[in-house]
Design goal:
Layout (H helix, E strand, L loop, with lengths): L21 E12 L5 E12 L3 E5 L9 E6 L5 E10 L2 E6 L5 H13 L4
Antiparallel strand pairs: 1-2, 1-4, 2-3, 3-6, 4-5, 5-6
Length: 118
Amino acid sequence: MSMVMHLAEAKPGQLSTSHKHYYIERPCRILVIGQHLKTKTKYQCLLRHISIGGAMLDFNANILLPKHFFLEIDGFREEIGCSQVHRYNFELGVRFNMQLAPEFISRLIRMNFTSGLL
């Protein structure tokens, strides 16, 4: 699996950054938003890698997605705003619209560890 995740092109005068990523295998859902900010469609996917800046997902290559959507990780109530930055076969690289709190990543790692999914 490629490690191309959340590495979007930097704007002029900005440096592109990368963050420490963690291997996590956890079910999640992509939420596509329709009119009046209501969930239009939900798609199942699998979270493979995550950092505070983005994630790499396994997702059906035949389904078209908009550039922006929300990600919901099993076991968490948060809906994370995402932008698609990489897509190749089943790989879907996303950048989060806002960086995740390090505490969120820690909770996710602990939850993954205690459930025996490592």
